[in-house]
Amino acid sequence: MGISETKIESIETDLLIIGGGTSGCLAAVKAREKAPDLDVLILEKAHIERSGCLAAGMNAINAYINPGETPESFVEYVRKDALGLIREDLVLSMAQRLNEVVQDVESWGLPIKKDEDGNYVSRGRWNIKINGEALKPIIASRVKEAGVNVLNRVVVTNYLMSEDNEVIGAIGFGVRDGKCYVVRAGATIIATGGTAGLYKPNNDGSAHHKIWYSPFNTGGGYAMGIRAGAEMTSFEMRFIALRIKDIVAPTGTLALGFGATQVNSLGERFMQDKFADMGAEGAPTPIRVYGPTREVKEGRGPVFMDTTHLTDEEVKELKASYLNMYPDLILYWAANNFDPGKEPIEIEGTEPYLVGGHAQAGYWINTRRETTLKGLYAAGDVAGGAPYKFVSGCWAEGVIAAENAVEYIKNKQESKSEQSDLTKKLWDEYNRIYAPLEREKGVKPREMEERLQKVMDEYAGGVSRYYEMNERELKLALKNIKRLQEQIEFLKADNLHELMNCHEVVDRIDVAEVLVNHLLYRRETRWPAYQTRTDYPGRDDQEWLKFVNSRREQDGVKMLEKSYEKLVK
Amino acid sequence: MGVEVNKDLCTGCKNSSEPVCVKYCPGDLLMIDDEGKAAIRSMEDCWDCMVCVKLCPHKALETKLPYQLADYKARLVPEIYRSKIIWKTEDIEGQCEVFELQTKTEDSA
Asked: In chain B, is it the N or the C terminus that has fewer CB atoms within a 10 Å radius of its CB?
């Protein structure tokens, strides 16, 4: 199909939420509860029933204030886990809402495991066990009941901006109908998640999507912010997950739920032997990836999580726990005749992701979750500065963003003038969206994705480089990314699904450029593995206990610094 | 990696506006082919979330891991009920295991 056949669909709404994952859905429900007259619209790339990170389910809530803990003790823990640098105002304001949102979702139908006294069953300091196979459908039902409008299968590509740089909506296209959607909104919440697919994955070819983070989270929200000149923070704090080898399933269940410890090929409990001063098995999350990665690099691999102490009954319980979240692990064990009660489970680090909910890459926001672009709020993995959100923190942030976006709409002066050249800008974006369908020859999105992933793997600290990098390599990465940016005009799609794939790779190229600039700028190693600079191997609190921010301007990515503020003792 | 469609069981859900597998796949990977049956665009792009396998009303879909990771023949079959899911696994030696897990609280289901 060509541009001439495409129709434009114009929509007006009060509150636009881009991304109907777990954060966006909670934001939508809260906005309708707070202001029942408000017209709330979710634009979702897939279908909210099973989209985002929770498609397969979840087996625990990992950010919950258990009895004996406080929001302040949570902040203290998260600060230590992130090696001293977090936005304490954001983490604290999120922590204060965690238990409330968990109880809300429980009341919508989520089964949370309870002991005989009716207390939640904890699994570590901040964790409670759930039966979350249907977590996303439960939330999606509540969205429907709350009277939220949802447009599924719409890929948003850019914001609409007013004359004075306010976000006044967004533009995108339908993956089913091919229509161009132009949505004008009183306020907008971005909740599109983080991004996978920047780096070459652990598995390739037929298993290239056998990755931990959702391969369908492709950095659209980051990229739209970058292109609109929003200030971004901490992209250099990549997230690398310690996962079960091959199938890339989470290991928190093994460590927290079943007391498994890390061992190397010599049977040494290396976290206890070598990282005792940092907390051994309880060392900060980056160190728990750096430790085993170093064992492998130095020839003491493979590394395992030892589950051989588990009884048959416990193994069955472990399997049940994974079926609630990563069911394919159980198929993998069945196919390879593997019994975790008899053999230890091999683990490895994943390729790096950008995720504001585990690490802290994302929009620079204030405690109202307002970005540096007027009228735009951010929640969940796309929002920066507050790691350790996980599912419940994304809910809390969605709720806070919604409350403030509703206030913003109420207090707003009557419609701001649109940019005088908005029509021209709309047509430019329209042409940018559909151009890959017009090309007869060119580069397929998968080819461009592979090129990007190879460059990032080799020059910006991927799996094959044990996550290490230096200035020379990073500059080569930038040079290659700039070449790729010039190749975008050759991207070609044969259908609407591939058109979506084209924009997913374009977005990731824009994100990669900002990421590499951040990695270059921080001249220390603060988060080993997440950010290992071989040319600046030490942590330097004197100079670098501060945030690295950036804003893309006409002539390139401009780097900024923001100070760290300690709120909690 | 991806899903195998049993073309004998798949009806293409002709009476619905959009078959559930096509409707809900988070990666937009399922479609209806020229014969009117479900088909996956690219096996390698599947995340193995098993949403389509769980929801197919005709049990016509089955998750297959990529051969580079897993031996042939093992199975994992989910059956969804109002407030629970039953998983049946069969390993390569034919040993079976069954798991029954709650998915929704009773009063909400």
From this structure: C
